[in-house]
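User: I'm preparing a small set of examples for a lab meeting where we compare how different chains pack in three dimensions. I only have the primary sequence for this one, and I'd like the structure in token form so I can line it up with the others. Please keep the answer compact; I'll paste it straight into my notes.
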Amino acid sequence: MMSTMLEKHLRAIDLNLLPVLEALLRHRNATRAGAEVGLSQPAMSRALGRLRHLLDDPLLVRGPGGSMLSPRAEALRQPLAVLLAEIRTLLVDPPFDPAAEARTLRLAMTDAQAELLLAPLVQRVAAAAPGVVIEWVPIGPGLAERMVAGDVDLTLALDTTPLPRGAASEPLTADALAVVARRGHPCGGTWAIGDYGRWPSVIVSLIGDRASDIDAELAAAGVERPVAAIVPSFRAAAEIVAVTDAVTTISQAFAARVAAPLRLQLMAPPLAHLRLGVVMVWAHYRSSDPLLGWLRAVLSGVAADQASSSTSQ
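Assistant: Understood. Below is the structure token output for the 313-residue chain.
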């Protein structure tokens, strides 16, 4: 019975009165306390009346030198100040220090993106946040659901990819398409739209669907490309075209990275849509996660450095 009465009493408390009470106990004057908390004199009088009723105590009493605190009000002054300070601490984001974090962050990206970004990203994270582990998750079926569920923290995707419901995104970098073939390929180092019908292509299929915007554009031009192989990684596609007469149309930045060791040549595709915008995607409800926000900033810095390096070469 006692606990039920206490619960009802607590539910009746207007927490907005606590700052008013704290100011009143500190100033020992209703007018000055009201001015500090932004209450007019009539509103402060009403608040004082509610506090007196709630605490069953006058709080302020007349003394020889003016208003003074009642014994109960004096006893409340210090614990109330401590309580409000603790409440304010709860409502303020604590300072973020990546070096104090100990978590695993899962990043979904293609092997081409990992080739360009993963090593420098892990290097920077290890230097600033040694307790954070970066786990590379390959792009595959069910990724959107895993990201929304929190199993994947960050995904890299093309900006033309429809975002799943509840996702947020931020631009990361820009890339372009390149037709990639072995050095000495019979095409002679140039590529026309009709060449897609003459030489077989290696298709990269990440989620089991080989259809692409490239095929749609070729179909509009009346060209159908023969297929030599369908693979789940860009590295595999590059290695196949390095030893065959097949070609592949993939990320220019990645192709430039592997061109020398695999003895590849890059050609400009005769396509209308050559730009590849890459974005970072995460579950919107994770937007306030300070570590995830920090990671996005670090990854953006890595991508900017990679873009600057490729431009200067």
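A couple of notes for your slides: Confidence is low (pLDDT under 50) at residues 1-8. Residues 141 and 214 are 21 Å apart (CA to CA).

User: Perfect, thanks.
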